[in-house]
Amino acid sequence: MHIVFAASECSPWAKSGGMADVVSALPRALAKLGHRVSVFLPYYRQVAKVVPKPKVVLQSVTIPFPSYNRFVRILDGGIAGEVQTYFVDCAEFFDREEFYGTPSGDYPDNAERFGLLCRAVIEASKILGVPDVFHVHDWQASMIPIMLGSIYYFDPVLRHVPAVQTIHNAGFQGWFPPQAIEKLLLPWDLFTVDKLEHFDKVDFLKGGVVYADAITTVSRKYAEELQTAEFGNGLDGVFRKRSGDLLGITNGIDSEEWNPATDSHIAAHYTVQNLAGKKECRRDLLHAYGFENVSDDTAVIGVVSRFATQKGSDFIVEIMDRLAKEDMVLVILGSGEEYYERLLVEMAERHPAKVRVQVKFDNVMAHKIEAGADIFLMPSRYEPGGLNQLYSLKYGTIPVVRATGGLDDTIEEQPNGEGNGFKFWGYSADAFLEAVQRALGTFRNKEQWTAMVRRGMAQNFSWDKPAAEYVRVYERVITNRS
Ligand code: ADP
Question: What secondary structure letter does DSSP report for 54?
């Protein structure tokens, strides 16, 4: 089967979060199962820095806009792991400082930028090979199912091609003023509440959910949560309407990128049988954060996160003064909302002997934290899938999580430290602190702790099973269309 992926992020070229890891690893797992996969990604400035002169595959693809056309090139991103990557090159849209916007706000032409990406993927596919199925990721690629179901509806080569929409985070839906309809040359009859309209805005993701043949999200629990008012972000009714076609598939992890036995970013390698290297990684991490003379009995707690209310950054701030009284040191890596960046830096200044923060996006440091910490915190308010708790398990770093979405599906706390982590249910910092204290209590029991570390490391997080589940979804939507 030929599957075309369309997304706004893909590791290692363009990453701001977990979607990039999925869009990179899932195609390779599908190729391993014998399928042909092509991935389309914008040719951002960040990509051009790494791949400055790619071969031109298509010199000019016409993308119409009101009163004028834009012309994009399709560039060859190469074949890796048997997956063909293509870059969509439109300098005026993608040669920018950031992917989606600057700290002062989103780019005002994001509807046109990602609308163009989608139309370019459709048009390029007609020349390079019409797939059996399109697999689109988040709102940035939702215009593919929308366009296939509307302005491309009578195209004889696309007519029977289904699209699968994956939701990595329904908190971001691509909301734009109604004029976006005209800017993308879509018919106004799409702007109704049963299609793209959401409280007088054009909602890309809503359109994707309405028009896709199947919808998937990145954990079973989040697929249920999406259908509730609390987590549906205004689309719970739309998700409920499509519940028969909505499925949760838990992410795997890319064992070439995240594996303590081979990771080139960490100070020493280790395995479930031989944990000695983890001690060296711990020393290296403490050194990177400028801590000296930390006793082996003191727990090293790590955080790698987008700073946002979604991620429970406020919970971390709220427990900080009480946590600082415990026998631990806390290392934080992250970036995001300025408000939380400032608060966390202030907290670190208040507890210089216990808490350190690095405000940046740094993949190498993220690996060092996963390897060097003893405990990893993820107090998310909601978490569609979450990858860091899986990386933590794989690296023998025990996660403390809020029981939501993918965190609830993958982390289990049991009495006597029998599970693979610690979790709390309430929506409160106190419940979070208690869970961290339970983790610290177990940390002091070395035998129990090591058993828990080993249990997590031995779990199987390969992409094989999720990839096979995606294949079943593709087969279903293809059959339904034929
Ligand atoms: P989300 O996509 O919602 O931000 P996930 O847990 O699904 O959350 O994925 C986050 C991904 O981004 C992980 O691979 C994590 O290591 C990475 N990441 C987040 N913040 C940083 C950072 N400041 N530096 C490096 N990597 C980061």
Answer: P
Q: Which residues are paired to 40 by β-bridges?
A: 6, 86
Q: With CA atoms as reference, report the closest residue to 350 among 326, 320, 327.
A: 320
331 lines ligand 1 (CB under 6 A): no
Mean pLDDT of 293-305: 97
- Provide the strand spans (E) within 339-457: 355-359, 375-378, 398-402, 422-424
Q: What are phi and psi of 102, to 5 degrees?
A: -105, 175
Please answer whether residues 253 and 461 qualify as being in contact, where contact means their C-beta atoms are separated by less than 8 angstroms.
yes
Compute the distance from residue 157 Cα to the ligand 1 centre, in Å.
38
pLDDT for the residue numbered 417: 81
What is the rounded CA–CA span in Å between residue 322 and residue 324? 5
Q: Is the pLDDT of residue 416 over 90?
A: no
Global confidence as pTM? 0.95
CA angle 197, 202, 203 (to 5 degrees): 85
Q: Could you tell me if the CB of 388 is within 6 A of ligand 1? A: yes
Output DSSP code: residue 189. G
Pocket-testing residue among 387, 395, 402, 461, ligand 1, by greatest number of atoms within 8 A of Cβ: 387
Query: Tell me: the pLDDT tens digits for 22-42?
Result: 999 999 999 999 999 999 999
Average predicted confidence (pLDDT) for the chain = 97
Binding-site sequence positions for ADP-alpha-D-glucose = 15
Question: Per DSSP, which regions of 348-439 are E strands?
Answer: 355-359, 375-378, 398-402, 422-424
**Each residue of 311-340: b (16+ CB within 10 Å) or e?**
bbbbbbbbbbeebbebebbbbbbbbbbeeb
Tell whether ligand 1 has an atom less than 6 A from the beta carbon of residue 253.
no
Q: Collapsing DSSP states into helix, strand and coil, what is residue 227?
A: coil
Closest CA to 387 of 18, 14, 19: 18
State the distance from the centre of ligand 1 to the C-alpha of 17, rounded, in angstroms: 5
Ligand 1 pocket check for 158: Cβ under 6 Å: no
Torsion of CA 427, 429, 434, 437, to 10 degrees: 140
Look at residue 415 in the predicted model and tell me its pLDDT.
Answer: 86
Task: Catalogue all structural domains in the chain, each as residue range(s) with its CATH number.
Answer: 2-252+464-481 (3.40.50.2000), 276-457 (3.40.50.2000)
54 lines ligand 1 (CB under 6 A): no
| Ligand 1 contacts CB of residue 363 (under 6 A) | yes
How many whole angstroms from 18 Cα to the centroid of ligand 1?
6
Per-residue pLDDT tens digits for 260-296: 999 999 999 999 999 999 999 999 999 999 999 999 9
